[in-house]
Amino acid sequence: MPDRLINVTEDIKPQVGGDELAKKLAFALKNLFTVTSYKRTRAYNTNYTTIFCKPTKTIANSLLIDREIVALLTSYTNVQVRSVKVIQQIINNQSPRLSPNIAIVLHSDKEGDDKLRNWGREDGVTIIPIYRPRGSVLPSSDVFRQRLSKELFSSDPFQITGPVSDDIDFFGRKNEALEMLRQLNTGRIRSIFGIRKVGKTSLINRLIKLATDSGSPRIAMVDCSVKEFYNLDADHALRALAKVSKMAATRGYAHITDALKRTDDGLVPVFDDLWAKGNNYPLAIVFDEIDYITPDSTHSAHWKIQFNDFWRELRVLVQEAQRHNVPVGILVSGVSSRCFRVPQINGHENSVLHFVPEEYLKPFSRQSSISMISDLSKRCGIIFSKEGKEYFAKICGDFPYWIRMAGSHIHRAIDVENRPVEIPIDKVKEILDEFVRSEGREIAAIAIKHMENIYPELFSVLTKCIKDGDVNFSEGRLLERYGLAIKNGVSVSVVSDMIKSGFDAVSNAPESSNLIYTISNFYNNINIATSTDWSEELAVINKRRNIIERKLRDLIRFSLKIQLPKGSSWVEVVLGSIPNNRRNDMSSFSGDVIMEKLFWLDLLNIVKKNWPSFQSTFGDIKRFEVAMDLLNDRPDAHAKEIDLADVALQRRELKWLEEKVLS
Predict the structure, then answer these.
(1) Which residues does 269 contact at the CB level (< 8 Å), separation at least 6?
(2) In whole angstroms, what is the distance from residue 76 CA to residue 70 CA?
(3) Are 303 and 289 in contact (CB under 8 A)?
(4) Maximum CA extent, the chain
(5) What Å distances lie between residue 294 and 82, 228, 318, 435, 474, CA to CA?
């Protein structure tokens, strides 16, 4: 048997040696994989050849592949989605031998790479496509390893749209979630106060998932940011609460939006009826975004008066539940704890004082931050030194969402094809410092501005702490509890560069700044009642979009200058691509001034009308149009609901344009 099959196990060398395609692939995988199985399969009236590839120790360690990978060999010039279905069947039949989420497909379809990647992504499998025109040679093992790195590490594990709850992405608070669930199950009252994006909603989602999986407690979810809820007076809000609790008691989980379409009797009578019917399961009532129904609410003035009424009635319910020996737990989540701490509200005794405990959700511990950084960076083939991970966590103040956004920035800054790669500390500092300037500043600023709006007293303490360098612990205790500062002896001080930069942006931003625009648009135009909180995501998307827009202007100018026929004026070409009314107004300006005055859609039209000059950059004119049109539809600039799909689509098109324009 020829030496080129040295990475094929002895028992299958005859079969592999007799199959020209399998033999060539085995040779291409030399030093990367050992071929351990060769089979011919028939499915969907089609013949397939499969081989199993066991990674070498080096590949297993560096590319994070710990099981064998199935490779599907075809010579079809038009691959079909059934190829992925065949792969899934083979993986399921061979579990746990084969990796459940990675496969190789050798094919001869010119358009097959993108099709296979997309089909695999839809089914949760990373397809590594190898295009080989019939009769041509396969890439060398070095080239193949680069392709492996690119396919395995091109996805961004740091970037998660919205709060998380699944094990694979839930870091740092697993034990905390379990303990809180146990306490709610026994009728305890808990609270989690913290600034935006510290992880409150992720913790709540985790609790709900754990409760749903275990069947206890039943969860009544009250999102107080739902407009139809916070606009209710206390009596009708309590009736809605009674209804959602009754629905949760029978279903296991119910959301306040399910109950708003119809009201019921008063709170205690509804529970008396439930208990009389024997519905004595533990119930947890979860109040998220509680700031919307407190006396400090900027959305509904009536809560200044009716806050006490609401909580007085709720206390009665909890006391009545105790007499029936039925656990009713309560969890309160929001930014400002002020209304739960002061003795009086509007001259009356605060009915919630000492009822809801004053508890805060701090950022991660440093060790949890480092563990999260290690896990996520390993998934995308980036390796940090201990010093690099420490610097990473410190820059982000150990806020999990900020760590994710910074990690995503690093992922975009490091060439995928050379991974796995260790990033030296100097490079880590350079990239993270640039992140703070370009994206982190606005992310932190939105959280700090939101805190200023909801809890101005705390913002005043933060201002003093940053300007003076520190404040004594008695004055800055809340800063430490919110995770905005750390205790240092008898004082507290702010150490996170992101917090300092975000504070500077809030303190010095003029009303016309992009930061103020983003925040005001988010709160004024977006229907928060039916959308998740996306303002930080939109700030980053806008920042990246602005960078692309500047680079696109430069690309257009440069490409037209060097590719137009001799004697042609690139300025005339640009003017000829914009509407007549604006063309006349701009014709007296210089080329550089004209470029700065162009709109986003002007740039699209210039590229389309002069496509031969840009085809080598963008490849597909239809794909370019889709990206430009979608990014022009800025969800924060219109009175529309924002959801996960909006953000995911914006990110996808940004990534595509960045690869074309910034590479």
Answers:
(1) 242
(2) 18
(3) no
(4) 94
(5) 56, 16, 20, 36, 26
Mean pLDDT of 568-588: 83
DSSP 84-97: HHHHHHHHHHTTTT
Separation of alpha carbons 195 and 380, rounded Å: 29
- Asked if residue 256 lies in contact with residue 288, where contact means CB atoms within 8 angstroms, the answer is no
Stretch 554-566: mean pLDDT: 83
Query: Which run of H or E residues covers position 287?
Result: strand 283-288
What value, to the nearest 5°, has the Cα angle with vertex 524 and ends 360 and 636? 95
- The amino acid that residue 161 corresponds to is T
Can you read off the two tokens belonging to residue 596? 């700065």
Q: Give the pLDDT confidence score for residue 45 in this predicted structure.
A: 83
Q: Which residue has the tokens 């008063």?
A: 266
pLDDT of residue 277: 75
Q: In this structure, what are the phi and psi dihedrals at residue 303, rounded to the nearest 5 degrees?
A: -75, -15
- For residues 126 and 100, is the Cβ–Cβ distance under 8 A? no
Q: Report the distance separating Cα 71 and Cα 78, nearest Å.
A: 18
* Residue in 336, 245, 255, 251 with CA at minimum distance from that of residue 294: 336
Which residues, listed in sequence order, are joined to residue 128 by a DSSP beta bridge?
104
Q: Decide: residue 249, CB within 10 A, 0-12 exposed, 13-18 middle, 19+ buried.
A: buried
Sequence-distant (6+) residues with CB within 8 A of 394 are 495, 496, 497
Q: What is the DSSP letter of 136?
A: P
Tokens of 85: 């279905």
Q: CB neighbours of 286 closer than 8 A, spacing ≥ 6?
A: 204, 207, 208, 219, 220, 221, 222, 330, 331, 333
Give per-residue burial for 45-72: e unless 16+ CB within 10 Å, then b.
eeebbbbbbbbbeebeebbbbebbbbbb
For residue 297, the model assigns a pLDDT of 87
pTM comes to 0.75
**What are the tokens at 619?**
């490849």
Rounded Cα–Cα distance for residues 206 and 181 (Å): 9
Over residues 278-321, the pLDDT tens digits come to: 777 899 999 999 999 999 888 889 999 999 999 999 999 888 88
CA 656 to chain centre: 17
Count helices and strands (H / E) in the chain. Answer: 30, 17
Assess contact for 635 and 646: CB atoms under 8 A: yes
Q: CB–CB of 282/292 below 8 Å?
A: no
